[in-house]
Amino acid sequence: MTRLSCLLTLLAVLVGAAPGVATAMTGDKSVAKMVAFGGSCAKCELSGRKLAGARFMGADFTAAALVGSDLRGALFHGSVFDKADLTRADLSESQMMGASFASASLTDADLRRAELNGADFSRADLSRGDLREIEGMGASFAAANLVGARLDGAELNAVNLSRVNARDARFDDSELTAANLSGGRFDGASFRGAELDMANLRGAIVTGADFRKASLDRTNISGVDLSRARGLTQSQLDDACGDNATKAPSGLVIRACGGRRISVQIAAPPAPPAPPAAPRRLVSVD
Questions:
Q1: Which of 150, 185, 183 is nearest to 167 (CA)?
Q2: Which three-class secondary structure state does DSSP give residue 3?
Q3: What is the pLDDT of residues 171-187, one digit of tens each?
Q4: Half-sphere exposure (CA, 13 Å, Cβ side) for 24?
Q5: How far apart are the C-alpha atoms of 53 and 95, rounded to whole Å?
Q6: Secondary structure element (H or E) that encloses residue 34, with its range
């Protein structure tokens, strides 16, 4: 019997013991509306399941399969989904505070308006993902794949985007104050109207990137070749600073950072809740 079957069997027992508790239906791959998961369910098979509004509190779903699952409005507080497969999953308006999705697959996933504060997406594959209007203060996307992803209107203050591959990604009108974009690939990316104040772009690749109307106040562009970037003006570069390795677009000049130290204080996201002490269980409530 699979682990999911065990969980659903337990749910059936709970339903029989407590009238009024919603029933989980396996025929159409649906699970009752308000489902709570805790404990460990590594490598669980939940692909295609209807789990809108599910609660994952301190749960371990390492390497679980949730391909194409409906997880709209789900809570993932303090849970681990490292190496999980969430390809094409709908995670819109979900809350992932303090959760870990390191090395997970979220290709073509929908994360619109999700709250990712303090979450870990390092080395995750978010290519072609829809991350418009997400909140991700203090989140980590270090070495993640964001090729072709949409992050328009995202709040990504103090986020770690170091060494990401974000070719052709869109960051239009996003907030990237004090973000770390060092060593990242942003070929053909769009930062139109984005706030990159106090951000670190040291050594980033921005060939063909669009910075039209982007704010670069105290932005570190040391070692960045901007000669083929688009939309930059002298006024923008006067606000930023670089070094001898920085290359400006034709006719523009770069101001040296001069060793100036910049102190940035941004409130840390709240700590995630502690994992529950109870053993693994599945609970459904109307």
A1: 185
A2: helix
A3: 999 999 999 999 999 99
A4: 26
A5: 10
A6: strand 34-38
pTM score, two decimals?
Answer: 0.81
Per-residue pLDDT of 88-105, as tens digits, reads 999 999 999 999 999 999
Name which of 46, 15, 37 is nearest 278 in CA terms. 37
Is pLDDT at 4 greater than 50 in this prediction? no
Distance CA 81, CA 13 (A): 27
**Per-residue pLDDT band at 36 (split at 50, 70, 90):** confident
**Bridge partner list, 193:** none
SS3 230: strand
Helix (H) / strand (E) element for 6: namely: helix 3-17
- Other CB atoms closer than 10 Å to residue 177's CB: what's the count? 22
Taking alpha carbons only, the member of 134, 194, 145, 136 closest to residue 168 is 145
Closest CA to 160 of 135, 187, 178: 178
Which two tokens mark 153? 């209107």
Alpha helices in 131-171 (DSSP H): none
129, 139, 161, 190, 205 from 166: Cα distances, Å: 11, 16, 9, 10, 10
Is residue 265 classed exposed, middle or buried when 0-12, 13-18 and 19+ CB atoms within 10 A define those classes? exposed
How many residues are there in the chain? Answer: 286
CA distance 108 to 122: 17
DSSP count for the chain of H helices, then E strands: 2, 3
Return the amino acid letter for 246: T
